[in-house]
Amino acid sequence: MKWPRCDSGCVTFGFLAAEVYGRTMAYNYDDLYKTTPNALGDPTKTFVDFFSRRDLGQGLRVLDVGCGQGRDALFIAELGHRVVGVDLSPSGIADLTASAQKQNLAITGIVADITQFTPEGDFDILLIDRTLHMLDAGPRLKALGRLIDHVAPNGWVLIVDESSNIAGFKTVFDAHCEQWSTEVAKKGTLFLKRS
Length: 195
Fold this sequence. Notes:
CATH topology: Rossmann fold
Number of strands: 8
EC number: 2.1.1.-
Keywords: Methyltransferase, Transferase
Strand content: 15-25%
GO molecular function: methyltransferase activity
Organism: Pelagimonas varians
Order of helices and strands: EHHHEHEHEEHEHEE
CATH class: Alpha Beta
Strand order of the largest sheet: 1-4-3-2-5-6-8-7
Domain Methyltransferase: 62-155
């Protein structure tokens, strides 16, 4: 499936994000991103540590779900990886793609509702930074189940979320058709590797 391009160079998923905010999210990050550059600050330390402590090489395909303006995606692309960033906010994706173009980074931005989004192909790393907790439990677990179908063999899933959601996430992996080994499960962090 090919997505149409929007004016800012990002990709749209065929709906208006503003219509979705009221249904799926209590907070409108698009309004924040329109007025505040780098609104969420530096890359998440947990992810910085993961990439710094492992010899992953370069050129991995990474899916950053709920990427916003790209605080994690930009850092990961600067390490030489190819990143697809997905977010409901057109303004966040526009900021992400503009920064990527300025820095000549391998990043594709997609505007999409993650409760409906299905990635193209497989990814070496699926990264979800404080995004799933914004959804109700049913849609949250369904979206995670659909996303992990697109993790390559020996690939990673890196989740930072509310501590209370980690047990539910584990049930999704336990029920999945592939085998997963838990590398980290503490304080709102869940890192798993596909066997």
